[in-house]
Amino acid sequence: MLQFFSVNTVAFDAFGYPLSYLELIGTIFNLWSVWLVTRRRIETWPVGLVGIAFFLLLFYQIRLYADVFEQIYFFVASVVGWWRWGRAAPETETQTGAAYSPRTSLLGWAALTALGGAALGVFVSRAHLLLPDLFQAPAAYPYLDALTTAMSFSATWLMAQKRTEHWLYWISVDVIGIGLYFAQGAVFVAGLYVVFLFLAIRGWLVWRTVRPVAQVA
Q: Looking at the whole model, is its pTM more than 0.85?
């Protein structure tokens, strides 16, 4: 049973690429979750939790350690987002409650994201030295991986607050992630991020054209 959760356990070969169950199931649920959020459906959160669990195991095994911490954060933030969206008043198709944050808040989040990415990069680059029992090999692309992780942290929290700018973070993460995962041999995940990129662009275009019904604190 435990072999099912190994990156070396192959579900099938996709055009010569050995696709593991971890990568396949995580991809399906994460893609489903992103599609749901573009349609402003609360089901995005529980569906996303399944994808998060599978990707956590995948990233640990391919040594993208910053992404491991990212998935842990995603899990917590998804629970919070599920709770916040569940408390919101019913919304119409054209009134999602989404809005951009004030300019000072936008700048603050950008600065926090940059600082968080730098700090996480320092930690991840030394994780194999600080915690050798947990991280037995040096991290791959620690600073780039940490930057996308920090941006994903911000994007997930802003999404929970229904802030439209979260899509701009996701677009940036997707562009970087395509190259990062391809370089690490996670070709199917890289392809998934291509789809994520198109969905993120579509989500941003949809969310920026709707009229907010209320500001979320």
A: no
